Fold these 2 entries.
Entry 1:
Amino acid sequence: MSYCRQEGKDRIIFATKEDHETPSSAELVADDPDDPYEEQGLILPNGDINWNCPCLGGMASGPCGEQFKSAFSCFHYSTEEIKGSDCVDQFRAMQECMQKYPDLYPQEDENDEKSTKDLEAASMEASAAKEEEKGSS
């Protein structure tokens, strides 16, 4: 016999073999590429940064989220000859914040700037992809 029970925030559903013999009647809805809540990647079609992208690993939220957003935005929109060279203060503020929360943001012993370099690499890849899209349009 199938049944359902609630334990705190969890709902536990027990289903019988007979319950699974009946085909599902669920209908799948096609993905809408214009859905603003659909995953769009790091850079949205309008050129803005998608702070909800799972590729950011949750860095845009948490105790240093604002510092991360400031540093990443500065780098992304930087027009300096050496991209991001005008963002040193923002990256320093982000690094100082992260050092206050070593459990959330563990530091690499070999290279303390690893997260910054990963961030720069992700932004460069996104910029290159965007330029490639413009070229193929």
Note: The mean pLDDT is 78.
Entry 2:
Amino acid sequence: MVVCTLACWRCRWLLPLLLGLAIIMGIIALAGRGWLESESEPYVQQASLWESCTRGEEDLNWSCESLMDYGWGRAAAATYLVGFVILVICFALAVIAFSIEILRFNFVRGIGGLLFVVAAFQIIGLVIYPVKFTEEIPLTGDNMFSWAYGFGWASTVVVIGCAFFFCCLPNWEDEVLGNIKPTYYYSSPDKAQYLN
């Protein structure tokens, strides 16, 4: 009869689970070589958050240069990485917060505030990278920002959503803790006489 929503006690692990998903997507973005790739054959350009690689049309070997030699490359990597580290800390805090029987709702709201900081750092890194990359790195052929860059944005979107839920969760304190009796709705007034 009672539907499990985000505010119910049984579903309290959804938010830490979503944060775990954001961490996985962040790891893919940090490790992936698909931040920028050639759009079609011949595939002559490939870049990650850390380096940019090119090769000739007939060459099989990639020639790579580190983006850490550029100030904007260090800034993009540092801001995204700082956001990721704070995200891991928020995940650990969320697991601790939801593990104890008596939730500290101000503590939960603090996690939401930290998640907004994570989103700000990640957005800064995700905006610096394409703007400065296209300005300062010579591009060969048709290129696109690809799957690893998309995982970075997906992680950020999940973090923003979780931040709102963590900040709003204390408004549903009684529902989460199970202090409210469930309300049952009956379809016909005939059944109401059996309640007395």
Note: Residues 105-136 form the longest helix (32 residues).
